[in-house]
Design goal:
The chain is α+β, with helices and mostly antiparallel strands and about 180 residues long. It has 4 helices and 6 strands; from the N terminus they run ααββαββββα. β4 and β5 form a beta hairpin. The chain is globular and about 65 Å long. InterPro entries: NTF2-like_dom_sf, SnoaL-like.
Length: about 180
């Protein structure tokens, strides 16, 4: 194999590995948000990163993470699902547009209500010291479906005896997994 082919193949492999690392970063974000794992969330952003969650928060990502316990206090269920993920690489920097479906069950003045958001994450990533992290994340909503009274029925007989997911350390995944640990990527 000549050097040109080898160099091209190495470049393609590097791009593939970088994109996979970025995809894993985005998926780790969803897990950290859903499990209320603020230590893990902090590990996903560079120290000088910016986070723009619209009305909830705009500023330094570390300050956003400091506010997460208050933001998430009324949320009984968080369930983030990423779908289409477009990534453009430029050396040690990258940009990504990530489609997300995020379900929230929250407690309000009238009881539990549901919010289903179809939106996108507009991300900028940087690879520093060999690790990809968020340098800037903006969240936008393309559509929202709000149910003023929850339609979630976790006490329905159909699922009686099932393992039920929850935010925090009580989630069954922490008893099941040995390799996935709270606070770790």
């Amino acid at each position: 194999m000549n050097n040109k082919v080898t160099d091209d193949l190495n470049d393609q492999l590097r791009a593939l590995l970088d994109k996979e690392s970025i995809r894993e970063l985005v998926q780790a974000y969803c897990n950290a948000a859903d499990r209320h794992d603020h230590e893990k969330m902090r590990s996903l952003y560079h120290e000088d990163a910016i986070d723009d969650h619209g009305a909830f928060f705009h500023g330094a990502a570390m300050d956003f993470i400091d506010k997460l316990p208050d933001i998430q206090a009324t949320m009984r269920i968080l369930h983030h699902n990423v779908t289409t993920h477009n990534i453009k690489l430029d050396g040690h920097k990258a940009e990504g547009e990530v489609y997300v479906l995020a379900f929230h069950q929250a407690e309000g003045g009238q009881g539990l209500f549901d919010v289903l958001i179809g939106g996108r994450y507009l991300d900028k990533y940087e690879k520093r010291d060999g690790v990809w992290k968020f340098s800037h994340r903006a969240v936008l909503a393309d559509w929202v479906n709000i149910q003023e009274q929850t339609v979630v029925k976790l006490e329905h007989p159909f699922i009686a005896g099932s393992n039920i997911g929850r935010p925090g350390l009580d989630d069954p995944s922490y008893r099941f997994f040995e390799m996935f640990r709270r606070g770790k990527r």
